[in-house]
Specification:
With about 425 residues, the chain is α/β, with parallel strands linked by helices. The protein has 4 domains: about 60 residues; about 30 residues, no CATH class; about 190 residues, no CATH class; about 100 residues, no CATH class. The protein has 15 helices and 14 strands. It has a 14-stranded mixed beta sheet with strand order 5-4-3-2-1-6-7-8-9-10-11-14-13-12, sandwiched between helices. Helix 1 crosses helix 3. It is elongated and about 105 Å long. The termini are far apart. InterPro entries: DUF38/FTH_CAE_spp, F-box-like_dom_sf, F-box_dom, FB224, Mos1_HTH. This is F-box domain-containing protein.
Length: about 425
């Protein structure tokens, strides 16, 4: 049917009248019309003109449009009008609007973003992104969590995030090579000649462009080195460093933190966590150099809560943290109390240590706690009396135990 009408556009008007009598929203009516007659049978602009006439009760199908003033396109409107239009859009609508064309992108980018929390996970075949502008559902959990909280967090993130995919996971959606499937909830859109990581990176960098904005949380996780290496040039291209209070970097290739930390503003940062999953490489190669590099960054030195979270079972080089006054060291697995004792004994020789927390995600079982604590200080002290004198000083280290965030933590604090 569509083919027989291709050169007879006036014959479409009765079909448009039929859609207008149903009084559906104009764009939905156009989609219904296009499915029946053909996608290329009539432009949306022409359909809208006749649809709105019929909706107003003007049924003259032989109306001559040639005498009408030529309508302006959206981009021919004065800048002041365009700004008023974009001011009525929420932040997510503006992010969609700016992708229509370069001119719209320029107008949208004149108004800075107002995001509060960002989480992005780069993978080989997809990138998942969550941008929170303060209107996130009340039931949504914080971006940073551990244990069961982290599992619930990940489930909610996967359900609510925007997914940019190079491969479809639905049988009824077919992608050509080079296409990107964008999914938000139940809505799907195919973008031709697009790469999933590029689309996500463009959205992330837009969300971080506001020079007056201070993000509450930023979580960046990498599971695909090839895609992730293109992220650093995006950060380098920002006109200012990223202002954020809480930063978490999850690594799988052991060098991701060096691509991110230099671009974080040390003036606003309050918490830095580097979670070294390192599933693609072991920590044995260059781990001391790597950790020394991390702790030398101003972004690490100036925060109140610097955290290293290690998944590796190899012996941790505690000497790399001896010049850090405060830090939290977490292990995904417990390697035995003797190794823990060696870490604590080493820390007790630090001249600058103020407070260190050493935690284990799987908990600790100590058969004789009193004897274990006594070996640390070399004196007879009980489990309820966790004080180790500092030689040639009136000070002492106090060792306490706490459970926080599904971690069993030993806290070593210098007391004056």
């Amino acid at each position: 049917m569509a083919h027989s009408f291709q050169n007879s556009t006036h014959l479409f008007r009765p079909f448009i009248l039929y859609e207008a009598l149903d009084q559906a929203p104009v764009f939905l009516a156009y989609q219904n019309f296009a499915r029946k007659i053909g996608q290329d049978s009539m432009s949306y602009q022409d359909f809208e003109f006749w649809y709105m006439r019929f909706l107003r009760g003007e049924y003259d199908m032989n109306y001559d449009r040639s005498q009408d003033p030529k309508p302006r396109s959206l981009m021919q409107l004065p800048l002041e009008i365009m700004e008023q239009i974009t001011d009525e859009l929420d932040i997510r609508q503006r992010m969609v609007f700016r992708k229509v064309c370069r001119n719209l992108r320029t107008i949208i980018d004149m108004k800075p973003s107002t995001f509060q929390k960002i989480r992005v996970i780069f993978e080989s075949e997809k990138t998942r992104l969550w941008l929170d502008d303060g209107t996130r559902d009340p039931h949504m959990l914080p971006l940073v969590g551990y244990g069961r909280l982290q599992e619930r967090n990940d489930q909610e993130f996967d359900r609510h995030s925007v997914k940019f995919m190079s491969k479809s996971d639905r049988r009824y959606i077919e992608l050509e090579d080079g296409d990107c499937l964008v999914r938000c909830g139940f809505r799907n859109k195919i973008v031709s000649n697009a790469k999933h990581w590029e689309m996500a990176k463009n959205d992330v960098t837009f969300a971080m462009k506001n020079p007056r904005q201070v993000l509450e949380e930023l979580v960046i996780e990498n599971k695909s080195l090839d895609n992730f290496e293109e992220f650093e040039p995006k950060l380098r291209g920002l006109t200012q460093k990223i202002r954020v209070k809480k930063l978490k970097i999850v690594t799988n290739y052991s060098n991701e933190e060096t691509m991110i930390l230099p671009y974080i503003d040390p003036e606003t940062i309050e918490r830095v966590e580097v979670e070294m999953v390192d599933s693609k490489v072991g920590m044995r190669v260059g781990k001391e150099k790597r950790i020394r590099t991390i702790v030398e960054y101003d972004q690490w030195k100036r925060v109140e809560t610097p955290i290293l979270y290690c998944h590796s079972r190899t012996v941790f080089p505690i000497g790399t943290l001896m010049d850090c006054p405060k830090f939290t060291l977490r292990f995904h697995q417990y390697n035995g109390f003797n190794k823990f004792l060696k870490i604590v004994q080493k820390l007790l020789t630090s001249p600058v240590l103020q407070c260190a927390k050493i935690g284990f995600a799987t908990g600790i079982s100590v058969p004789d706690r009193a004897k274990v604590i006594a070996t640390i200080g070399g004196v007879e002290i009980g489990w309820m009396h966790h004080r180790v004198p500092i030689p040639n000083s009136q000070e002492f280290f106090e060792i306490t135990h706490e459970s926080v965030d599904d971690f069993s933590n030993f806290v070593v604090t210098r007391i004056q």
